[in-house]
From TrEMBL:
Region (Disordered): 112-136
Protein name from the UniProt record: Helix-turn-helix domain-containing protein
Organism: Rhodopseudomonas palustris
Ranges of Basic residues composition bias in the record: 116-126
MF (Gene Ontology): DNA binding
InterPro entries: Sig_transdc_resp-reg_C-effctor, WH-like_DNA-bd_sf
GO biological process, alphabetically ordered: regulation of DNA-templated transcription
Lineage, highest ranks first: Bacteria, Pseudomonadati, Pseudomonadota, Alphaproteobacteria, Hyphomicrobiales
Length: 136
């Protein structure tokens, strides 16, 4: 699903998945990054960010004649502003939470950590009044 992702991020999502696009946007937004013709070792930025399978797909997609890599501008923020980017992530996380997905499943789907999912749930409960009742 690439709804709301601008240009190259939508392209990345089509090739390697939405989680990969969001991870790259979060880590390298506003920067020009180099996609090599073939992914490097596990410590290469692309492999470390999206994993070896997604990295291989992206390298194959963005390489020039499969011989040379390519430099790509990653949009500064998804949807035009950082606030919109965070809102989009929050809305997507909330929707998946309402579907009954576990923290682990949500984190894997969105490319987030489980801790981020737990923090979001805690903040959201505070806003909706669903927080725990006092024991005393």
């Amino acid at each position: 699903m690439t709804r709301g992702l601008p240009g190259v991020l939508a392209e990345i999502a089509e090739v390697a998945g939405e989680a990969a696009a969001l991870k790259i946007a979060a880590r390298f937004g506003g920067q020009r990054v180099y996609f090599p013709a073939r992914p490097g070792a596990a410590d290469h930025w692309l492999v470390a960010t999206v994993g070896p399978d997604a990295a291989a797909k992206l390298c194959a997609h963005f390489s020039v004649d499969r011989k040379r890599g390519n430099r790509i501008e990653i949009p500064l923020h998804v949807g035009g502003s950082y606030r919109q980017f965070l809102r989009a992530i929050s809305e997507r996380l909330h929707a998946l939470d309402q579907e009954g997905m576990s923290s682990r499943e949500i984190a894997a789907r969105l490319g987030l950590t489980q801790r981020t999912v737990h923090r979001h749930r805690g903040r959201h409960r505070g806003k909706t009044g669903d927080d725990q009742k006092s024991l005393f």
